[in-house]
Amino acid sequence: MTRSLRMALAAVIPLCLSLLVAADASADDKRPNFLFIIVDDQSPLDLQVYRADSVLETPNINRLAAEGIALDGAHQMGAWSGAVCTPSRHMVMSGRTVWHIPDRGRTSRSPHEGNADLVPPDLAEYTMAAVFNRAGYDTMRTCKRGNSYDAANRKFTVVRDATKRGGTDETGSAWHAEQVLDYLGEREASNDDDPFLIYFGFSHPHDTRDGKPELLARYGAVNHTDRNSLPPANVKQPPLPINWLPEHPFHHGHPKLRDEVAVKGVWDRRDEQTIRNELGREFACSENIDIQIGRVLDRLETMGELENTYIFYTSDHGMAIGRHGLQGKQNLYEHTFKVPFIVKGPGIAAGTRAEGNIYLLDVLPTLCDLASIPAPQTVEGTSFRPVLEGQQETIRDTLYGVYCGGTKPGMRCVKQGDWKLIKYDVLDGKVQETQLFNLAENPHEFLPDHNRDNPMETNLADDPRFAEKRRELEALLLAEMKRLDDPFRLWDQPQD
């Protein structure tokens, strides 16, 4: 019996169980609701929840953390595409690992697409909305268009998608909030008491970061459009990131990468004025998102639904914006490999924190667990409900990351405990680099170029004191690559 046939047969059982759950719970108005909030391109280090000295004002996100739990070790597993959000959102929707998901259907950047044993051809039937629809939930979605899992998105009963990155209410984040508020109003008007799952996505703070004028002014930023001049300096602008560099010490491996050379307002510049202005633009967009979240939270509270609703807040991946001399999300440093992740809801103690060591692909099994819905057999992630409820600190010890949307085989990383290894094999072998960080001593992943006084605040890969640790992590990385069906090997790995 083939693996794909086994998976198809196994999927019948949870499908039937989902129908039974829906039938048994049809008279139970206490099933929890879900509001899953996902923003586009945001490093956790932008938020006061993760960096207390951030000047970004997000009182509603802060409120979610104060009334729920913040996870310090949430990660996006990686990407085989320069549009990192595509595999990220496919993993969110399907609960599957990065090498076991399809592309959008228009391209074939996913190396195993077409292999039914690794990428189920009917996977959309076992994605977030499809699973919750069968369990008797009402499902609604608003988010940007494109760079997402189209087949899975269409499974939501109500879909109101559009890309909104402008500086007005109609062209910006308020539009997405209006879709959710309208939907809640329709539910209230029709006395709809079915439990709901709302996928509340934003198009910002992804570029172009055209913020509302009053919020841009708060952060001293302008929507800079002249490539031949610098944006004006302003004391209100956010300070440079602590690990800012004027350029990365070696090529990142993706020639002509849009996010590194063509973002309007930044282009290939990494000078202080450009980066501080762009951070101000990003913060203006992020504060607007926070305002819109507050509107939806207030409406849920007015409707009497807030206390019975699990609210998830996250991003599809992090961002650089000057950190390490980079601009985009096509890297594996912590500011990009990690994502913010905050959850508030029934049974979650207020004001708590945990490391978690989760991936975004763990979202679907966790939602299922909290809703008492059997997760599909296609799911490869792990429910982190025990972390949310304070029973565990983490759900895994080892974390793997990949970026190979440019030249192959690309970048890989592995984390375990305080240690992290990053390897680069790009530009046809012209760049072959290894980085080793002790994150307890060097959480910002300072490089020699940062000229830090602490001898641990640098790349330790060639330090003889840590040669054994490097060998240990390189063996661990290879094991993870094999386990996860990574189709590539780096220059110093066995070419099996």
Automatic annotation (TrEMBL):
InterPro entries: Alkaline_phosphatase_core_sf, GAG-degrading_sulfatase, Sulfatase_N. It is an enzyme of class 3 (hydrolase). Its EC number is 3.1.6.1. GO terms for molecular function: arylsulfatase activity; glucuronate-2-sulfatase activity. Pfam families: Sulfatase. Transmembrane segments: none annotated. Residues 32-372 form the Sulfatase N-terminal domain. Keywords: Hydrolase, Signal. Residues 1-27 form the signal peptide. This is Arylsulfatase. It comes from Maioricimonas rarisocia.
